[in-house]
Structures are given as structure tokens and as C-alpha cells.
Specification:
11 strands, alpha+beta, disordered C terminus, three-stranded antiparallel sheet, six-stranded mixed sheet
């Protein structure tokens, strides 16, 4: 297997110059409020004023395979794959499986594409650039744990911090190549 690189950055994954990125969902195709604008721009689901939800065709594909191609990559736009990244609180193995499944599906999508955005770079990349959000830090169950701080006696108490998903950020993602 060829060597790979992992880049971790803060920012909006929907604005990253990459070949494909993951739209995180739960197993039912629901997306958090922070991802609603991306879902609306893709035209592949609805929001009804609350959290977003994939359209029927995408939800069927997601439930059958764990992911759904919302848009294949083109020369001008990255592909978008909805992946079930919701994991039980504290289940590190489930988190790792969700990441591996998301990366595998992204690689399939970019491998099947005739052309991807990175081909237009002055110095094209030998490997496709795919991006995914940090799994396990949003609404998938770890928000409460991340916002808890131990007191002087080692007892965890809820901090005043606002979870990133509730603040509207879509960053904290990594790009794998």
C-alpha cells in the first residue's frame, strides 16, 4: 500500500479544495444544524426549519450501505458522500470503523471519476485529496464528554463551553490523501 498523509486543519470542509468530502449523518440520514446549509446547497434533502435530513433516495442508499453519493466529483466541484458517522458514546472501535468506511467510500467515488478538482492544480497531486470531519466530537454522543471538566477532586462537571456543532462550525476536519 502506498504511503499516505493525514492533514488536520480547522475550517469549513465545504470550502476546502479537495476531490471529495464527507457530509456526516446518523444511520437515518439526519444531519446536524451546522451541516444544513451544505445539504441545502446540494439539493439532496430538506430541513423544515430544524436539523436536515437526506432525501428518500439518499437515505435508502445510506441505510443499505452506510453511505450515499450525493454528488460525484467533477473538474469544478468535489464529490460529496453522506456517511453514517454517528457512533455510540465512548466506542472508539465504532468511531474507527466509521472513519475507515467513510475514507473507503470517498476513495471509491474519486477513483470512479473521470476528472477531479485536484487535476486542475498547477502541480497535480499523485493521490486524490479527500476530506472528512472529525468523527466523534459532534452530536454523535461525545459532545457532553468533551465539555466536561474535572474539578479539584477529579469529579467531572459540565463546563460552560459550547459544543462546536451547536456553534455552527463545520470544521475540525482532516484530509487524507
Amino acid at each position: 500500500m502506498p504511503a499516505r498523509h493525514l492533514f488536520v486543519t480547522r475550517g469549513d470542509l465545504t470550502a476546502l479544495h479537495c476531490d471529495a468530502w464527507v457530509l456526516p449523518t446518523d444511520r437515518h440520514g439526519n444531519v446536524t444544524t451546522a451541516w444544513r446549509p451544505a445539504l441545502e446547497r446540494l439539493g439532496r434533502g430538506g430541513t423544515d426549519g430544524g436539523p436536515g435530513r437526506l432525501d428518500d433516495a439518499a437515505r435508502a442508499e445510506l441505510e443499505a450501505t452506510g453511505s450515499a453519493v450525493l454528488r460525484p466529483p467533477t473538474a469544478d466541484a468535489p464529490g460529496v458522500v453522506a456517511c453514517d458517522t454517528g457512533v455510540p458514546h465512548g466506542d472508539v472501535r465504532a468511531c474507527a470503523r466509521a472513519l475507515a468506511d467513510a475514507i473507503e467510500r470517498l476513495e471509491e467515488v474519486v477513483a470512479d471519476a473521470d476528472v477531479c478538482p485536484s487535476a486542475r492544480l498547477e502541480l497535480p497531486r499523485p493521490r486524490r485529496l479527500v476530506a472528512l470531519p472529525t468523527v466523534g466530537v459532534g452530536a454523535g454522543g461525545v459532545v457532553a464528554a468533551r465539555c466536561r471538566q474535572p474539578d479539584a477532586g477529579g469529579v467531572h462537571r459540565q463546563s460552560g463551553g459550547v459544543p462546536r456543532g451547536e456553534a455552527g462550525g463545520r470544521g475540525g476536519g482532516g484530509g487524507a490523501s
